[in-house]
Design brief:
141 residues; mainly beta; Porin; eight-stranded antiparallel barrel; 1 helix
């Protein structure tokens, strides 16, 4: 309740976001202004080695060009790959994306980025390409 009141008072938008990349992501999209949004996310994949990621991304928007909103951002990823073996990691990431607002409620986006893994030494990978859709709540726009 406190989060909803704070978002209604201080933010420009609130939405529910779905993204498909290496895993399926569900996020809460909290836009604090037209230039910045914060996205707490849960990513999951089921299979041989089920895992869950808890992700917090921040996006900074640039000038709009031909209806496309360009953004760059950062992220902190808490990976829980195998709860039986306590195999967890913290990763840092960065990304660039394009967002197209279909209307005031629906927005689609695509992004690509890099992920820095510190678990087994240092590794850099470009494993963050993804496509997604955001459904904004009209009461908060």
């Amino acid at each position: 309740m406190v989060l909803l009141l704070a978002v209604q008072t201080f933010s420009a938008s609130l939405g529910l976001e779905f993204k498909a990349d290496e895993a399926e992501n569900i996020a809460l999209n909290i836009g604090f202004s037209d230039q910045f949004e914060l996205k707490p996310q849960v990513a999951f994949r089921l299979g041989d080695g089920a895992f869950i990621d808890l992700i917090v991304d921040g996006n900074f928007y640039f000038a709009e060009m031909s209806g496309l909103r360009h953004y760059a951002g950062f992220g902190v990823h808490f990976k829980i790959e195998d709860t039986a073996n306590d195999n967890t990691a913290v990763n840092l990431g960065g990304h660039y994306g394009l967002r197209y607002d279909v209307n005031e409620i629906i927005s689609i986006f695509g992004e690509i980025g890099v992920l820095v893994d510190f678990q087994d030494g240092f590794s850099l990978s470009s494993t963050r390409p993804g496509l997604g859709c955001t459904f904004y709540l009209p009461a908060f726009n």
